[in-house]
Each structure stands twice: as C-alpha cells, then as structure tokens.
Amino acid sequence: MTQSLVAALAGFRLGLGLIVAIGAQNAFVLRQGLRREHVFAVALFCALSDAVLIALGVAGFAAVTARLPWLAEALRWGGVAFLGWYAIRAARAAWVGGAALDAGQGAAPSLAAVLATVAALTWANPHVWLDTVVLLGAVSAQFPGEGLAFGAGAATASVLFFFALAYGARLLAPLFARPAAWRLLDAGVALILASVAARLALGGV
C-alpha cells in the first residue's frame, strides 16, 4: 500500500468520524432530505464547504490558531452564542409542534433562503473551526508530503456522508409524516446543541 493511499484512508476515516455526529448542520440536511426540498443543492453545498475547510486545515490553520490564541477564543464564544440561539429555536419548535412531512401543505422555501440557512449552519459551526479544521490540519502533518491525499480522503468522506444523509432521509418519510416525530427530532437537536454550547462555554469541545 502506497503512502498516498495510507494518507487518503487516514483522512477518510478521520473525516467521516468527525462529521457523523448529529448537529445543527446535519439536522438541517436531514430535514431537507425528509421534506425533499433542494436536496441536491444542500448536500453539494455542505460537501464543497467541507472541502474548503479541510483544505484550510491541511494548509496550516492549526498553526495559525497556535500563533493567534485569541482567534480560537473568539470562535469559541461565537460558537456558544450561535449554538445557544439555534438550540432555543429547536426547543421552541419541539414545544409548539405542528410540523409534519406533508408535501402538499405550504410553499417550499426558496433555494436562496435554504442556502443562506445552511451556509450559516456550516460556517458558524464551532466544531468546524475548533475541531474539524484544527484536528485535520494537525493530523495531516503526520503525513509529510501527502497533505493532498489526506485532504482528498477527508473530502471524499464528506461527499459520501452528506449525500447519503440527504437522500437516505426519505426512507424515514413514513415516520416523519407524524408531527410527534418532528417534535422528538427538534427536542433531540435542542438537547444536543445545548450540551455542545455548554461544553464550549466551559472550555471543552
């Protein structure tokens, strides 16, 4: 097995492991897949964004944050605020209820509105900057001269994950035809995001 392949497989495993955990971005992709609204565009945007962020990490973002510790701190508190706000939104949706997977009701949001939302959930996600970018950058340093292969492996994992999540979500459509299922999903997202925000505020990730 060549060193490039070893690096690519390492990047794939690490990249997949970092994005599998449910979070604001993944919950939104899941929701769009369930509603079958702009599914391809959302999955593609997330995959391309991950590729850019992975490139930043491999190119040395970890070294930048080491030289500018205030940047990591600013990102941490920005992440706390963002996640707290989104957790409140999800909790309110779970409390109010009324959502259901019914393509015959209501107008679908525009592509621009959907992409604006997923952009915020992607680029304001603290785990992207404090975990994925920095960690991938640090680990890629273990494969000198193979940063491109490592990054390509991680980016491939993102493409496969986001498209599988977006298009696989329709298999759950019968379950999410019931409003109670949406309330449980929103409640779970709210709890997860609130716990992540709390860990960030306490200095963890």
Question: Secondary structure elements and their pairing?
Answer:
Blueprint: H1 3-19, H2 24-35, H3 39-67, H4 69-96, H5 111-123, H6 126-140, H7 147-168, H8 179-201
Kindly describe this structure.
It is a single chain. The chain is mostly helical and 205 residues long. It has one domain (3-97, 107-202). It contains eight helices and no strands. It has helices at 3-19, 24-35, 39-67, 69-96, 111-123, 126-140, 147-168, 179-201. Helix 1 (3-19) packs antiparallel against helix 6, helix 1 packs parallel to helix 7 and helix 3 packs antiparallel against helix 7. The longest helix has 29 residues, at 39-67. It is globular and about 50 Å long. It starts with a helix and ends with a helix. The chain crosses the membrane at residues 6-28, 40-62, 74-95, 107-128, 148-169, 181-202. Pfam families: LysE. Keywords: Cell membrane, Membrane, Transmembrane, Transmembrane helix.
For the secondary structure, the number of strands is 0
Largest sheet: none
Shape: globular
Number of domains: 1
User: Whole-number radius of gyration?
Assistant: 18 Å
Helix-strand sequence: HHHHHHHH
Q: Tally the helices.
A: 8
- Low-confidence parts, pLDDT < 50 over ≥5 residues? none
How large a portion of the residues is in β-strands, by DSSP E?
Answer: under 5%
Task: Briefly note the structural class of the backbone.
Answer: mainly alpha
**Average of per-residue pLDDT values:** 78
Pfam family, one: LysE
Main location: membrane
Membrane topology: Multi-pass membrane protein
Subcellular location: Cell membrane
